Amino acid sequence: MVVIMKPDAGDRDVAGVVERIKKYGMDVHISKGKERTLIGIIVDEREVDFNSLAALPGVDRALPILRPYKYVSRNVHPQGRTIRVGDVEIGKGLVFIAGPCSVEEEDTTLRIAEQVRQAGAQLFRGGAYKPRTSPWSFQGLREKGLKILAKVRRETGLPVVTEIMDSEDIDLVGRYTDVYQVGMRNMRNYSLLAKLGKVSKPVLLKRGDSAKLEEWLAAADYVVRNGNEAVILCERGIRTFEDFTRNTLDLNAVAGAKVESCLPVLVDPSHGTGRADLVPQMSRAAIAAGADGLLLEVHFDPDKAWSDGMQTITPAELAGVIRDCQAIRQVVTAKGKA
């Protein structure tokens, strides 16, 4: 359940609610927003007297939350969250995260980074650790790749996003990255998610390829419940019977996640289709569906990319995608205000 405080509630009011909840023998999670404080309680709602909590000084209302996700529920944060990465606010306007699937040689990676920056991307993505289906496939440059990402940040000013695969690498990866990416294979790695709840940097959480919407949001709760509220959702396609594309990009989940959760939602049309020729169309569709931005694989020579070249677009194509998506966002926003 969640206790929503009035906008003018003070620290004494919050302390009074916390004290009452602890008398029930329960722990609380306090989230202080710009306008009001929310107090989350993970409990069987039948054990709580809602009326007595709602009557306490400073309380606006007390609500049960019956979903398997509590902290990321839109009921808790009706206005939604924005996540700041450097000078970029994800969830406010559109954000474009672009770069190669894998971090490559330093000169190549820096060249790609500069070109995606000029095309309009605000963050750079690149995998230093690559989880691959085959153990014989390229597994990434690892710490060498992380150091290249750090140089990208220094030389271009772009914050960097890279994947974390193992909880043992959290500190190492954290030295170099601005955003931890949790890939679809690790969406259900609850131990990793809980430990990422202890870090101070944002977590980009990709949906598992067979995960239902509520399972995806419950995974986000593992991070937030442990203290890190800076979670960004990313739809990257699910596995279905259709084999024309690598995955089936589920734009239902984009709209659904915006309705059900308070978190920003990005879309990865590169993995969602597996086809570079479909990336522009599905990028436009994602923004029309309400996505807050895109995660795109980009390389100046996709045929020579170290991995996933078939779904990688060029910097020139990226510039076109950004231009089109910004125009669509203006239309969607204008209709929302009408």
Task: Explain what the structure shows.
The mean pLDDT is 91. The strands form 3 sheets. The protein has an 8-stranded parallel barrel with strand order 7-8-9-10-11-12-13-14, surrounded by 5 helices. A 4-stranded antiparallel β-sheet has the order 2-3-1-4. A two-stranded antiparallel sheet has the order 5-6. The protein folds into 2 domains: 2-63, Alpha-Beta Plaits; 83-337, Alpha-Beta Barrel (TIM Barrel). The chain has helices spanning 11-23, 50-54, 106-119, 143-156, 170-174, 190-196, 213-225, 251-260, 269-273, 279-288, 315-337, and strands at residues 2-5, 28-32, 37-41, 59-63, 83-85, 88-90, 95-99, 123-125, 160-163, 179-182, 203-206, 231-235, 265-267, 293-297. It has 338 residues and is of the alpha/beta class.
The number of helical runs is: 11
Largest sheet: 8 strands, parallel, barrel
* Gross morphology: globular
Number of strands: 14
Summary?
35% of the residues lie in helices and 17% in strands. The protein is of the alpha/beta class and 338 residues long. The chain folds into 2 domains: 2-63, Alpha-Beta Plaits; 83-337, TIM Barrel (Alpha-Beta Barrel).
Write the layout of secondary structure elements.
Elements (H helix, E strand, L loop, with lengths): L1 E4 L5 H13 L4 E5 L4 E5 L8 H5 L4 E5 L19 E3 L2 E3 L4 E5 L6 H14 L3 E3 L17 H14 L3 E4 L6 H5 L4 E4 L7 H7 L6 E4 L6 H13 L5 E5 L15 H10 L4 E3 L1 H5 L5 H10 L4 E5 L17 H23 L1
Parallel strand pairs: 7-8, 7-14, 8-9, 9-10, 10-11, 11-12, 12-13, 13-14
Antiparallel strand pairs: 1-3, 1-4, 2-3, 5-6
